[in-house]
Amino acid sequence: MHNMKHRILFLLLSYLLLSNQLIHSIPGIIPQPKEVTSGKGVFELTKFITIIYQDERQAENAEYLYDELKKEYGFSLLINQKNRPQNGSIFLKENPTIPEEGYKLTVDKKQIICEASTPTGMFYAIQSFLQSIISEDKSYFILCMNVEDAPRYPWRGMMLDVARHFHNKETVMNLLDAMARLKMNRFHWHLTDEDGWRIEIKKYPKLTQEGAVGNWSDRMAYPKYFSQQDVKEIVEYARLRHITVIPEIDMPGHASAASRAYPEISAGGEGRWAGFTFHPAKESTYRFLEDVLTEVAELFPGPYIHIGGDEVHFGNQVWFTDPQIQKFIKDKQLGDESGLEHYFLRRVSDIVKNLGKTTVGWDEMIASGIPSHQAVIMWWRHDKREQLEKALSQGFNVVMTPRIPCYLDFVQDNTQKIGRRWGTDFNSLFTVYKFPKPVESIISAYPDQIMGMQASVWTERMAGTKRLYYMIFPRLVAISENAWSADKVKNYDSFMKRLKNFLLYLDRKGINYFNPFDVNSTPEPWGPTKKDVIAEG
Ligand code: TNX
After folding, report:
1. In angstroms, rounded to a whole number, what is the distance separating the alpha carbons of residues 472 and 160?
2. Superfamily of domain 2-149
3. Minimal CA–CA distance to 496: which of 484, 478, 511?
4. Does ligand 1 come within 6 angstroms of the Cβ of 410?
């Protein structure tokens, strides 16, 4: 206790001396809010505090807050629905004047008030509150302050590839927890690729019986996939954390796992690219995909379905020689193989539209002729800025996830041996943090079309959970600040100070990370096989 008072005094004193900097470093809210003003004194958090919520629709948030305090600090607080706060309460208050995802957080010595106009805004007030708890000698307190906040972008995401190496339900849920703490709201789930088909489709059981066998490091690995029940649990877990899940079924390329299960809808081929694409000239392919997407649309209540569309040219050699495909190109007057690729994407995007969903696709999709209001483009080829410009000038809404600096399978430190590089470029925490500065001059002309950004976690070289977390953290934290915080409140020194607080959260959850404060303290966890020594550009 004595120690704690000492510490409080020290904090308050330093605040008086150094006010501006301390607003940034204490409390450790990350991403940085729009405005933080420090008050005087502290609110002491004890087990006698009550959580009070005003409106029935905040009941789930109140329970979430209860659960988090219980899990992290062992508290079991009371929860009440009432119209006004009382001394020693955390009050979830309706305030219709606050923007949709925004919130206010007011901490004084007697109470904590979280205000928002929506359950999502309230959820974010709760995150800032949770991040502000300081624990010291088994006492818990929060510095008095006022926070006013709202996000820069509506899409603050992370993509996880579970096809190259499977990562299970518990891992996904841990990641959703961390995303929620960072006010991130889009989980893009890359469910199918060459190495595995990871989602159960009832109408086509072989997709998982055969298509889920193997992974990037071991072609014969035991089949791993998410059952429809798993998917429902994850979607619900995400919903309670105000995260929309976007499923991706990659096509017409990256389809090798589906091809192994159902060779009759594959374009075939030999060697490394065998079965890389669906057969684009068979009606049965489109029927198959419609059936698959119908089940997918039912499982995922969110408005989006991602249909990939990337890198088709890698493995479509068969398209140039197969008589049925060549005849199809002629009959439909598609011109050539890339015309056929665009036809394929238009057709599947129409299926998605008929299912009541919006298409999302990688930036190759810009050229497909899909109307701009019907699709969201993910810009990924950082070396092709013209793709970003094209998407915007054609009227598409865009999510930015350029390889440099948003792909977390690139190394984060020059000493690392496993992971991608692009020439001499890689994705250090600092490089990630600078985004989207390098493209600001392009995007500033289209403020309404930039939906936001995401980290993309490709898992060719991430077999184990420890390694997966190590590559994700702390770079995901930088992405969350890039997506949430206005440029004028961003500051790398301040970020690094607040990051320490988030690393404590990861410690409490047992989530591994690369420690940028002590590079040698965190040895690079093992990759899967010998193959994953330094990757290609
Ligand atoms: C490119 S991004 C891919 C992925 C790889 C990734 C590795 C994209 C649309 N395609 O298939 O996993 O690079 O960094």
Report:
1. 10
2. Chitobiase/beta-hexosaminidase domain 2-like (3.30.379.10)
3. 478
4. no
Q: Which amino acid is it at 122?
A: M
Ligand 1 proximity of 458 Cβ (cutoff 6 Å): yes
CB of 311 closer than 6 A to ligand 1? Answer: yes
The rounded Å distance from CA 537 to ligand 1 centre is 11
- 160-191+226-242+383-537, superfamily in CATH? Glycosidases (3.20.20.80)
| Domain(s) of CATH 3.30.379.10: residues in the chain | 2-149
Ligand 1 atom 6, closest CA: 458
Q: How far apart are CA 536 and CA 218, in angstroms?
A: 20
User: pLDDT per residue over 489-521, tens digit each?
Assistant: 999 999 999 999 999 999 999 999 999 999 887
Listed in order, the ranges of the chain carrying CATH 3.20.20.80 are 160-191+226-242+383-537
Q: 391 in helix, strand or coil?
A: helix
pLDDT at 524: 81
- Collapsing DSSP to helix, strand or coil, 243 comes out as coil
As a whole number of angstroms, the distance between CA 55 and CA 52 comes to: 10
